[in-house]
Design brief:
alpha/beta, Rossmann fold, 2 domains, 4-stranded parallel sheet, binds phosphoric acid mono(formamide)ester
Length: about 300
């Protein structure tokens, strides 16, 4: 059934995916979620495949979730970090990827600080490329697990109001979520200080507000983002404590939220900055559910990309 809607070899971003492809992948993830609910279950769907996790930026959730996903599908997976690779000796990304392919990789999962790095590799080498985050451009597996989690808790997303609050300017998570959520019929509001949420985002189809009250009232879910200091060369607000006072989510602002508004965060959390612990750990928080769902979603990504590749 899935092959009718899925013919992609690589997963580069949600901007160029259509609604049917997204739903196909989420449905596959739902099947895998049932398998994962039986502790210790392993499938042999990718037995004999060799997957390389090439992470040029730090990661906990994404890297480990791809490892667990690959192992649950019986694939071999090897993780490489930039600091321990020959990139530190001046080798180019292209040469690194060509060498990994020559070593027998059947798919490469890549995280890199440069926007377009996954697309570049997909044009350079033959095996499926999975984008695990390319600069501030896209983080498709994160957005897919966010959307999976939202659908699990809200049902169909048509007409649902999702607010994404924080450092939108430097966020690949915000961009991928915008593309995916809109294709599933949700309304997306980007909120935060004007320096981090320029009005120009309206041209991409998001509503934009710099008013926290307006951002939170009527939202079905609010997704917090951390300040991405690693991508900012200058400060975009006077001080972190001022940011927290105006745009941080604490029990004071919780009063603005409707009773059923859900809280999400892609992680890592900076407790006491964009969200305080009371809300990060409260019953309406889906933060750890997002992480768990990330395994089923990445199983679906690996399975669909690697098996559609076989058929070509
Ligand atoms: N959300 C996310 O990408 O987390 P990691 O950086 O830990 O992978």
């Amino acid at each position: 059934m899935e092959m009718k809607s899925w013919s992609r070899k690589s997963l580069l971003g949600l901007e160029d995916m259509n609604r049917e492809e997204i739903i196909c992948l989420l449905d596959k993830a739902k099947e895998f979620q049932k398998v994962l609910s039986q502790k210790g279950s392993v499938l042999d769907l990718l037995k004999g495949k060799r997957i390389i996790n090439l992470f040029m930026e730090p990661s906990t959730r994404t890297r480990v979730a791809f490892e667990v996903a690959a192992k649950t599908l019986s694939a071999d997976i090897i993780s490489i970090a930039e600091s321990s690779s020959s990139l530190t000796k001046g080798e180019t990304l292209r040469d690194t990827a060509l060498n990994i392919q020559a070593l027998g990789a059947d798919a490469i999962v890549i995280r890199h600080s440069s926007p377009g790095s996954a697309l570049f590799l997909s044009k350079t080498i033959d095996v499926p490329i999975i984008n695990a985050g390319d600069g501030a451009h896209e983080h498709p597996s994160q957005a897919l697990l966010d959307i999976f989690t939202l659908r699990e808790n809200l049902g169909a997303l048509d007409g649902k109001k999702i607010t994404i609050l924080g450092d939108i300017l430097f966020s690949r998570v915000a961009r991928s979520n915008l593309w995916g959520l809109k294709k599933l019929g949700a309304s997306v509001t980007f909120a935060g200080p004007s320096t981090l949420v320029p009005e120009g985002f309206e041209k991409l189809g998001a509503k934009v507000t710099h008013n926290l009250h307006r951002a939170l009232e009527n939202a079905d879910a609010v997704m917090l983002l951390r300040i991405q200091h690693e991508r900012q060369s200058s400060s975009h607000f006077p001080s972190l404590s001022e940011y927290t006072k105006i745009f941080g989510l604490s029990s004071n602002q919780e009063k603005i939220l409707a009773n059923k508004t859900l809280i999400l965060h892609p992680g890592p959390i900076n407790r006491g900055v964009e969200i305080d612990s009371t809300l990060a750990d409260c019953s309406r928080s889906l933060i750890l559910e997002q992480v768990s769902n990330g395994v089923a979603v990445r199983m679906a990504i690996l399975y669909l990309c690697c098996t559609s590749f076989d058929k070509k």
